[in-house]
Structure formats: structure tokens, C-alpha cells
Amino acid sequence: MAPLKPASGIVVSTFEWIIALLLGAVALSALARRIKVPYPTFLAIGGALIAFVPNSPSWALEPDLALALFVAPVLLDAAFDTSLRDLRNNWVPVSTLVVAAVGLTTAGVAFVAHRLMPEMPWAAAVALGAIVAPPDAAAAVAILSQVKLPHRMVKVLEGESLLNDASALLIYRIAVGAVATEHLTWSQVAPTMALALVGSVIAGLLAGYIIPLLLERVKEAPSAIIVQFATTFMVWIAAEHLGLSGILTIVVYAMTMARSAGQRMPARLRVPSYAVWETTVFVLNVLAFMLIGMQMRPIWTRLNADVRWEYCVAAAWILLTVVLVRLLWVTFYRAILRVLVARGIFHPKDPQAVASPKGGLIISWCGMRGLVTLATAFALPENFPYRDFIVFIAFAVVLGSLVIQGLTLRPLILAFGLKDDDPVGTEVARARAVAYRAALDAIESDPSEEAEVLRLEYRAILMQAEGDPNGGVANGELPADPLRRRAIAAARKSVIALRDTEVIGDDAFHRIEEELDRAELSAGG
Question: Which Pfam families does this entry report, sorted A to Z (predicted)?
């Protein structure tokens, strides 16, 4: 029988490019971790290079699909891990960044863009401002995970990145609608905004309570993960069809669902689910940067030398505007807050509520743009006025912010010497002591030999807890964990030897391997 041949060389080429891009992204990510810079920085550089690679593919994606495909799962992944308590405790700085910083950035960029391109409609200029206004947390978190920044500052940045997309996209939708209708009054906009805000919160709460009832009926890991993704897109699509904010609905849905996920989802589903979601977020970042890079090539080739220079100058001015507006707002907010505290008008519970000058500069410098900016630029209708200019500027702002701020953020943090008192570590230690005391009480009356072994281990943990002034376990692992890992490593080596010498087959090997994997995970491996 003759070997099967592809129906089209294009299919093979596309498949080969996808493999090459994914492997290249993995290599860039590894390099980024090695030199301790955010991996989106290298993805942005790679996307820019794609535009100039000869014979590189030119893939098309429906603009209406861009937001749902790229933003919905990424946003749910971030919102699922968000602490509602920390968000509530930091609502003042978060809300000012979400509302004031985004609004001022949108207005500033719109003003600069209109001055640079006088014939550009104001609605299109506002749409550009809304596209580049929201910072993306992916790059900042990649840096913040490498250094010990004060916990409260990290929570403010995470909360901002979670909600600023909703405010920016609301302005974006109104601006795009204004271009379509040409005449849009405040009386038409206000009800839309109220419906989007209130309706999105209600829809997210309902989905967060109802959909988990469906998810807990799915017991197989592959099926459960597929249903998780499907329901995420369903919530987004339903919100968009109802005229609500898909972003705000997804955020509320994820945070509501996360409250009960610990009880509803067993560990055998949770571990693979988290791994798949993390991989998916990485792949979506790769595809977004690559697709926008492919969009840049036809835009660049259509421009003559003079217009290219004009676009580059405009991109530099708008990038400068984006950086300066955020810096000025954070400085102004700090000054006002200090005045309110000095006059006794505002009494913060946390003395760190007013950021230091160094902390304010770090928050300002964490305004890197990323996936959401790319997705919203890509989602513009094909006939949108100045679409090429807006897409070019959006990619240039993302690239510039990731390269300039992304490469300098970590050295800046280290130079300032900001420290973290690790409140999360203290809470983990206390919770671990309480949990193992409860576990010890639960098996105290069991006379079996297995129960006695567990009792010995739990008592050792509680002895450590009693010696800790905070009532927690001193180190980050249980007393027997190093011994367990050493024993598991020896067991794994012996089983591999049995498989290599064909004493056991692969089926038996994989079954034992799965048992050892579970044991290693439980031992902190």
C-alpha cells in the first residue's frame, strides 16, 4: 500500500510551522528563566521577527474570535487563583488603577494619536487608547515570582490586571460602536454601561453556582478538562450575546467557582487540570504574539518609507505617553493619600497602604502590555478606520513595554532592596499545624499499625509547631518528606532497572510509576 500523501502542501507547511513555533517558544521560555526576564518579552521579539522571516506563514483568524479564544481562558486562569480577601483589602489602590489610570491612559493616548493623525476619527483614537491602556500581569508576575516583593504590592498589581481589562474593554466597545453608528450620545451609553456592570456580576455569580454542579458529575480527567474549557467559552459567548462584559462575567464566574472548587474537585482531577490550564495559557500567549507578528508583515509591506517612519515616531510617542501617564497617576495618588492620612481623613488599617516612593515607582514600572492588548487590536473589524495604524501601534507598545520595562524591572527591584515579610508563609504554617492536629485527632482511636505510623509523623509535625512562635511549622516541608523522597527515588530506580532488564513489562511499569508519582507529589516532590 502506498503511503498516504497530504492533500495539500499548505497543510504540511502549517503543521511544521506550528511545531517550530511551539518548540521555539519553549526554548525562548527556558532562556528567559535562565537569565531571569519575563518570557512574554522574548515572545514579543519573536513575533516581531516573524514579520520579516521570508516565506513565513500568514494565518488568518476571525476578529470576533480573537477575544474569546485568547482572553477568556487566560482571564479565568488568573481569576481562579485570586484572593477575594486580598482584593477587598486593597480595593482603594486597585480601583484607582482600574478606573482612573485606565481612563487617563485612554484619554492621553487618544489625544496624542489625534494630534499625530489629525484625520483620525476621535472614536478610533479612543479605541486605540483603550487597547493599549490595560497592563498585562503575565510579564510582571513572571518577574515578581523571581524576587521577594512586598505581598501587598503584588496583590495590588494582580488585582489591577484582573479588572482593568474589563474597564478598558468597556471603553473599547463603546468607541467601536461609536464608529459604527457615527452618532452616540451619553444617554445611549449610560444604560449600556450600567447593564454591562451589574448584569455581568449577576451572570458571573449565577454561572459560578450552577456550572460546578455540572462539572462535579464528570469523573474522568480528560472529559472534565474538556468540559472546563467548553463551559468557559460558553460563559463568555453567552455574556457577549446578552450585551454584557465577557471579561467581568468571566472574572466573577471564576472567583465564585474557586470558592467551592476545593470541595467539589478531587485531587486526581485537580492536578492534571492545573497542568493543562497552565500549558494552555502558555500556548495562547505564543499564538497571540505570533499571529500579531504575521499581521504586521502585510501592514509593513503596504507602507512606503516615509509612512513607516511616521508610524514608528507615532509608536514612540504613544509608548512614552502610556508610561508617563501611569507614572504621573501613581505619583499623584500617593501624594493625595499621604495628605489624607496626615490630616486624619483616611485611616488605613495597614501602615503599608501608602506606598513608599520606591514602591510607587515599581508599581508604575509594572505597566507592561501583553496578551489583552494584542487580542483587542486583532479583534477590530477589518473595515475599521485606521485599523493598520492601530494594530501597528498596539504591537509596538507591547514590544516596547516588554523590552524596556520587562528587562529593567528585576534590576530595579533588586536595586531598591524592597523586602517581603512573607505573610503567606506564616499563614501556611499556621494552617498546616491546625490541619495536622485535626488529622491526628481523627485517627487517635484507631488501633491499627498503619494508624500508629501516621500518628508518629503527625506528632512530630505538631512538636515543630509548638516550637514556632507563630504556631506554625518552621520549614516549608513535613519532617518525613526528605526521607520519603529519598526512598521514592530508590524505588523508582529499582523499578526502572526491572523494566530495562525486561523482568516486568511496560504495563506493570507504568502502573507502579503512577503510584510513585502520587507518593512523590505528596512528599513535596
Answer: Na_H_Exchanger (PF00999)
Three-state DSSP class for residue 14: helix
Residue 232 near residue 246 (C-beta atoms within 8 A):
no
Residue range 372-389, pLDDT digits in tens: 888 888 888 888 899 989
- Domain positions in the chain: 9-421, 422-476, 480-525
Query: Is the pTM here over 0.70, yes or no?
Result: yes
Query: C-alpha angle with apex 54: 51 to 59, nearest 5 degrees?
Result: 55
Q: List, as one string, the DSSP characters of 193-223.
A: HHIIIIIHHHHHHHHHHHHHHHHTT--SHHH
Query: At the top level of CATH, which class does the domain 9-421 belong to?
Result: mainly alpha
DSSP 353: G
Residues ≥6 apart with Cβ < 8 Å to 237: 68, 246
| Size of the chain, expressed as the number of residues it contains | 525
| Number of CB atoms found within 10 A of residue 381's CB | 12
Give the torsion through C-alpha atoms of 142, 148, 151, 157, to 10 deg: -30
- Closest of 363, 408, 382, 393 to residue 164, by C-alpha: 363
Q: Which residue has the cell 516612593?
A: 357
- Taking only the tens place, the pLDDT of each residue in 150-169 is 778 888 888 888 788 888 88
